[in-house]
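Run: sequence + flavin-adenine dinucleotide -> complex structure.
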Amino acid sequence: MDKVIIVGGGPVGLSAAVSLAQQGIGSLLIEKHPTTTNHPKARGVNGRTRELFRSWGIDEALKPYQLPKEAYRLTWIEDFQGREITQVRATVDYSPFSPTSNSVVSQDVVEQELLKKAQSLPLIDLRFNTQMVDLSQDDEQVTVRIVDRETEQSETITAPYLIAADGANSSIRRLLNIEMEGQDNLGEFCNIYCEMDLDKYVKDRPSVGFMLTRPDLRGTFILSKDGQRKWLIGIRIDSRPDLTKEMFTDEFCIEYVKKIVNDPQVQIRLINKAFWTMAALIAQRYRMGRVFLAGDAAHRLPPTGGFGMNTGIQDAHNLAWKLAMVIRKEADDSLLDTYYSERVQIAQTNTKWTASNAQRFVKIFTALAQNDLPTFEEALRDQAHHINNILLDLGFIYGQEYQNQEVYRPTTQVGARAPHCWIKKGDQELSTLDLYNRQFVLVCHPAAQHWQDQFCRFPCKIVTIGERGDYQDKEQNFLKTYEISPQGAVLVRPDGHVAWRASDEKGPMPDFPWLKIGDKR
Ligand SMILES: Cc1cc2nc3c(=O)[nH]c(=O)nc-3n(C[C@H](O)[C@H](O)[C@H](O)COP(=O)(O)OP(=O)(O)OC[C@H]3O[C@@H](n4cnc5c(N)ncnc54)[C@H](O)[C@@H]3O)c2cc1C
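>> structure
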């Protein structure tokens, strides 16, 4: 079988299937549950992930589920009857930098739309209610045994490559003896997902989340699933001597939520609950032969800052074009090793930052417990750093370190995400980002004849932007944003990252050691 096997139908497995299909590569996706998740874990869908969703045609479908912009804040309250302490807002304006922006939409809805997309693509074969139970590989292929959980029928299938998107407890990672490095057991939590009408308490202060400071509720937060009726209550259990995991029966969960709301009029319907452990762990390698780890199987990030799902979806997108080129024999195997070198750096940065956000919360609750008001107030102000992170979102550059997550400057340095500019063709208005998906693209001004001649035997599409070009430069900012003169050019990879650039007509052609086709010169 030529299809890539994907184990796991969470956001990362589904994104891997869609990204591969976008590259013209088929996949067989195996998911042990009968459906996608009904528990809204992640809510923060960042700008870069939305740019990918735009290129897959699902961004519009997700818009009705996004919380309104004014809700992008964390509100600190004693409880719903008590005093409001402060609000911390997301303040960064994405509009100069992206056709999308960061957003708040819950993971169950994201998975639902990814699933619909996957179902619409003939290259994707979806097998839900099916578990992978064994895996082996040799130089030629990967062999897995899968079991249909309804009929208990087992089947053996082979593929040239396998993507392990089987989550934080990845059985594939364990089968391959790949160790995780970092910190485990950073906190034990129970999530209570329920339905209740909190309108009168939240309508004047819509918020992604409410943090509760009442002494008997410390370590409790309540996150909005839809801004209206559905809420996810998170409780840190291990730091509370009065709580154990065993206590969280359905009745106890409802009683706990009643304590938070503190209003006997509010009816509470428990939808489900889940236990999870916070960790900051990264796999020592993402590749073993023909098997690649992606998403939570490769890294477990603290959820503080909302980067776990985003990092995983972007792993899948980074891997898909590389697998496609190797499968099509356009690149040699060494291209696949760049998946780890590029993505582990992102996982390290995002893990470090989300772990520091977790510490920011600890600082607040410690100061509260010690009645240390100056530290409490300073720690609250510091929360602004938690939710403003455009550099980590749009500005990460493969192969480069970066520091300040609040400032993003578009650049075409090699490894950066190629910047967004509005362009036009007739009545059609689009972003430069819409040009990058299936193949390498050389973007330049029509005057850059030298590079257009040089690249005509290179495996890429040539697109000119400017007067008499393929597209008009709508805001006259293409050359400046792309840091080139009218004679320069930028080569963009299928995942939208810069592969090469020449600021004018001087300089050598790119020389990619893994490339097997075209005239490399
Ligand atoms: C409270 C909370 C809040 C969070 N908030 C955010 C946020 O705001 N933003 C963000 O980006 N991230 C957030 N996250 C993290 C996010 O939920 C995860 O990073 C994301 O679910 C990882 O996706 P995944 O596809 O890698 O793994 P999963 O979602 O765990 O999916 C793995 C899938 O593999 C399947 N599977 C496992 N083994 C097998 C097998 N042997 N055979 C077949 N199928 C198998 C499982 O059933 C599962 O469906 C949050 C997490 C929590 C707990």
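>> summary
The chain has a mean pLDDT of 94. Residues 422-502 form a domain with the Glutaredoxin fold (CATH 3.40.30.120).
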